[in-house]
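SEQUENCE-TO-STRUCTURE ENTRY
===========================
What this section holds: a protein sequence and its matching fold, both as plain text.
Question of interest: how does this chain fold, as expressed in backbone structure tokens?
***
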Amino acid sequence: MGEEISGPEAELDAGLEAIRPATAIALGLRKGGRKRDDPKLDVFLDEQIDLIRLQKEDLSEQRELVLSRLRLGRWKDRVSLALQAMTTLVGVLVAGAVAVMAWQAHEARGLLIAPFSVPSDFVARGLTGQVVAARIEDRLAQLQAETVSTRPASTYANDWGNDIKVEIPETGVSVEELTGWLRDGLGQVTRVSGEVVRGPAGLQITARSGAADAQEIQGPEVDLDGLIGQAAEALYRQTQPYRYGVYLASLGRHEEAAAVFASLAKSGPAEDRPWAYAGWASILQGEGRHYDAIRMARAAIALDPKLDPPYQILGVSSDAVGRWEVGFDNPGRELAVLQDRSGIGRPAGDISGRVRFLKAVEAFYDSDFQTTTTLLGQMAAFDLEGRAGGYLPQHLRARALSLLHEITAAERAEAGPMDTNSYQAIPGRGTTLGDWAQVAARLEQGRGDPELGGDSQRTIVAPLLAQAYAHLGRLEEAKALIAGAPLDCYRCLEVRADIAGLERDWPAADHWFADLDRQSPHASMGPSEWAASLLSRGDLDGAIAKATLAHKRSPRFADPLETWGEALARKGDYAGAASMFAQAAERSPRWGHNHLVWGDALLRLGHGGEARNHYLVAASLDLSSPDRAMIEARLAGATPGKVGNAQAGQ
């Protein structure tokens, strides 16, 4: 069936249908033979012609009207569709806004403090519940600011970060109230409420956080601000236990901090436990309890291998107790965590600096001391958990400079509070300059240093002081001191070997050197010192063999090359010796003794001018007293005896 037509088009068709039958009959009569001069028929046809003309005119006018109505209809249809689309869009936007608000509420982490209930006379004095809540807010913000931690907010089981607000009561329903309802229902906002009442002891402030036990603080009314501060601290301890532990450590309240971390490490939420072990390790390290710090750092890494701070603690404490193999392994493990950007607990802007520091540490353990000093440059102190500026890279640089035999520069780099690194730089004055009396004096001061207690005394101060005493001829005191040092401590074994050598107990010296090598098969310091010991006994081939081993392990280490050169010179191979001294100078360019023996080798080869140049260079550098006397003699024209026969420390 066709579609039924309505509207203006239907009216037009109806008019046409009314005239068509009569006109058709008249035309049929005319065509059917009726006479042509039939006046009535002619009039009728003329009237029909006039009617058709009028209808055409009317149709023309109606056409414009119909087209106008059609246009209007189409416009109405479009407006209707647009309104429907806008309604749908508004619905989608409202639904989206609600979804966004719900998601934001779900992710909300903050602290909302409701106005406290206070006595009526407090209100009259202007101390309203909202004022008390604001003072609680201020104190909590201050506690946050005084907490030194690298821990990201996202790793806390309960974090309200810096979003601390006082709730302001409102009438009616607002967007803010709707957001608040969503945060209460979906988020993890910590709500605090409480009251201030008078009691027998004065004022009692009660603060509540969620379903946790209420915190009650009592005291005299004149100390209202102090009571509010105590209430805020109690809330901080209850709601942010890890941050509270770090805050205590920042104030030097180490025993309290350790108790907080210990409790959290053993029974806290899973998110907090590895961080609690790391914080506990940091406290123990600061107290010089390095073996315990190592255990806690390892516990933290076992729980979360991506956590960065415990690697840092493990490295520092392992070095302090002389576990050098950890020094070879630990920086690489931490670098792997940082470089794949999966590490936690290191601010993004600090990663490049930390990577640079770790590469300097790797170079140090590889005895590439030039690279260490270059990488550390003027690197500033960095924070440890709970200890702002707790590690001074310049003190590691001082150790490296000392091992490059640049004693003056090393002592400049020791500036600042002494630590395990700066104490280990002190013996360089003895090994390079032969000034063991000054070394002993400084280390004796270290025995009373409160910042260097615990294990550091047994693994750093006592062994190094024993070494100084032995070189000063105080062998019995030296042996008594070293007897209490651990047998798994690298520097302790080095000192035992040195003391045995000074007593010319070569079997004992070899025993300790062999133990060094067994405990740390990657280290080059032990073989290098063994080579120097063999050289002092006249075992030239043995010295060359150990120097070769040390050079193979650490190609950038100057000392084994210098010892190798002295052994070759004593064998009469002055050209080979000069070559070794030249290579040593590339690695330690400001080592005065090396320039002295290099000059001696060149002089033996007949290169007097070059020899003099090296003597002049040596004269401008750090030298022991015997070496300086020898330089003066050479410059005055004296002929060298044995090359290197005045080496400091031998």
Remarks:
- The domain at 256-425 is CATH 1.25.40 (Serine Threonine Protein Phosphatase 5, Tetratricopeptide repeat).
- Strands lie at 111-113, 164-166, 190-199, 202-209, 215-219, 382-384, 387-391.
